[in-house]
Amino acid sequence: MADIQSTHAPAPKVILRSDYRPPEWLVPQVALDVALDAQKTQVRATLHVERNGAHEQPLRLDGDALTLVEVRVDGATLAAGDWTMDDEGALVIPLVGDAHVIETLVEISPAANTKLMGLYASGGLLCTQCEAEGFRRITFFPDRPDVLSRYDVRMEADKTLYPVLLANGDPVEKGDLPNGRHWARWTDPFAKPCYLFAMVAGDLACNADGFTTMSGRSVALGIWVREEDLPRTDHAMKALKDSMAWDERVYGREYDLDVFNIVAVSDFNFGAMENKGLNIFNSRYVLADPETATDMDYDAVEGVVAHEYFHNWSGNRITCRDWFQLSLKEGFTVYRDQSFSADMGSPAVKRVEDVRVLRAAQFQEDAGPLAHPVRPESYMEISNFYTATVYNKGAELIRMMALLLGPERFRRGTDLYFERHDGQAVTCEDFVRAMEDGGEIELSQFRLWYSQAGTPRISVSMDHDPATGTAKLTFRQSVPATPGQAEKAPMAIPLRLALFDPETQSHSGDELVVLTAPETVVERKGFSTPPILSINRGFSAPVIVEMDRTHQDLSFLSAHDDDPFGRYEAMQQLMVNVLLGRISGGPLESAPVIEAVARTIADPALDGALVAEAARLPSEAYLGDQMLIVDPDAIHGARDDLQAEIGSALESEWRAIHARSARNGFSLSSDAKAARRLRTLSLSYLAASGAKDASELALQQFETADNMTERQGALAVLANGASEARETVLAAFHDRYAGNALVIDKWFQTQAFALHPDTVEIVEALGRHPDFTLSNPNRARSLFGAFGGNQWAFNRKDGKGYRMLADTIIALDAINPQTAARFVTPLGRWRRFDEVRGAMMRSELERIVAAPGVSKDVLEQAGKSLQG
Ligand code: TRP
Ligand code: ZN
User: Fold this and answer.
1) What 3-state DSSP class applies to 505?
2) Confidence band (pLDDT; 50, 70, 90) for 10?
3) Ligand 1 first shell, C-beta below 6 A
4) pLDDT at residue 260 greater than cutoff 90
5) Residue 315 CA: which ligand 1 atom is closest?
6) Can you give the pLDDT at residue 723?
7) What is the distance in A from the centroid of ligand 1 to the CA of 386?
8) What is the CATH number assigned to the segment(s) 738-868?
9) Out of 1.10.390.10, 3.30.1300.10, 2.60.120.200, 3.40.50.300, which CATH number does the structure's domain 319-451 have?
10) pLDDT on residue 159
């Protein structure tokens, strides 16, 4: 296969799922000897390699940004002609026998590693990130998940700078060396793919605790942070112990090493990483205390700690055969962490939150140029496939299987999966087969969920025959075309539904209907008057339901549906309908919404957190998603008007809620959390109402709050409008938290999210603020990630928002391509905007694609966004 000669940089290679071949060489055993230093680290690797099957292929070891010093085979140094380097930077060594010992010595520079993949420096620490393909930036190795090895790691470093040395598995030996250096040796008894390798060196303090497993083994737990952050680690520790107990109870999975460590780092491309026995976390998912973390932050810490811990079984003990199978571990693990969080708090509220994320991120992805199946068919850069589709839609697939099977058979399926594949690198297909065999079900049509991209649409109509008392429901499904997939087959779609009798306000049972054909008709008897359909209860399938519904029906469901998700959904749909009516030029029919909100906030039987979710208006972006051509100004105007009307019509109610939910001593109880949600919601309605004292109330909430949830809530309300109080609280917030990076991120993010007429200029100025830097992913995301998600500001008519984001992507690409590539998405929505905006967005994408030295990460996303 010869590449076409070109004067331009070669187009990045496309990797195909269908090209998968088993590895030619295996590496059952690895020893690493690492002399750590921020400027120049030396890595000596000893690989025991074995030929896999009969073939004559040389050994090929991936490498990236490594300086090769020496190569030996079976103890003998190779001469320069005995190995080659291919055009992708891999080291190629011809070998005659079936088993050899390969030793390499390389040099790397952690301090110069701004991509944050491989070994890098962060706030005085040295740490690693290897998933997906970072291990090749540490040493030459077959960097693919189906090569499983046992690791023996010796680390050596300056003892003052790096008193703590951590790696995977168990600590076995340590000692001091001359010149103020020391060393430690760690061995991991479990064979693992190299993406799970990890190492940390630094001056860290430890929150040490323990857990006794179900078989009575004791595990030493450690959360390692900078000394001053120690008091903020208790919530993460509790989450860890809860997760360990939950996985035993719910899945029968026990932890398998004597040690489990978590390290927090401030520079990290993602949320966290499940390295065997040594999870490395973005500090924002470890640190929490009432003064600096919101309730959402607390929940995110709990969820991410659980997620990474659960990977020990769903990901580590059983891993992916190749990166196309990523959802095997991510979809399943997200489903597991969602179920855990639901059990720890309110299942109804958790479901609402998860669906909101799914719709905001995954439905949008599925409807755009970057749409791909849960199991993709091809990629240029695998980092671009750590997506909402692979993670969140992947989790919905597992959830649907769990629903189809019921809890007991689902558990039999997962038991079989864990038993059958322990220690292996497997595929999504293997998971589905374990569900079929263990759960005794047939899932052939269901498999289309893995291969077909696009969000299915279900249109529903109902005919009622009063003579026979029959309700006839007709469901028609269709899956829209997506890039590379013009034609789709009908899918297996499990819909939970119930038919309410409007008179008795009840139904005679919730049922599961599985659509398998393009059209399905269901008839139910016993209705003298037309029943009201509650459909996709609990959001049983990740689909879009299209149905003409009256305000009365939605109002009815928002009051009487016994499925809490259904109630929330009816309320949101009512708001959407009213807003879309206004956006398309009609009057603002606020009365039914006001009435439904009034009823909801007055219902003493409802969970306050659910009330707050139901009474909140849908986001501007969600409204945009309901339109063929998004009109950001009309959406903003209509939503603002409705908020003002709800605010003033119910002003005394909002005042009462705001007063009643005032601080009552910080606690994480669900009542206290619900009160805080309601407090800021009522404040935002009061501000929208135009009440004269609203900014006074916000200022008071800001000043008297004993927690970050209320303080940031007040800050966000004030950041939306022009007032003196706005400047006061922004300055006070910055002063109060100067030096606390995670809170300063909130300061940037709140302003970038603000529905303020000058957000574009504000963000531009913040980009030059002394606290701003593109080198820290959290900081870059807090400003420009948030800005890209602010539909009204980002899509400002003059195109300045587009230009600013494109400039940012180009600048960041030179530092951290993986993070830069994630900022491309908002520009890829150009088809959904008017021609003037669309043309400006396209020309920014073209500028990005043509930027000198553009990375393959950014090139793939921007290139696909232009075609799509
Ligand atoms: N596997 C990680 C998770 O728990 C994801 C992850 C962490 C990651 N760091 C990364 C993915 C860097 C890509 C690049 O979901
Ligand atoms: Zn994960």
Assistant:
1) coil
2) low
3) 129, 131-132, 269-270, 272-274, 307-308, 330, 383, 386
4) yes
5) 1
6) 87
7) 7
8) 1.25.50.10
9) 1.10.390.10
10) 98
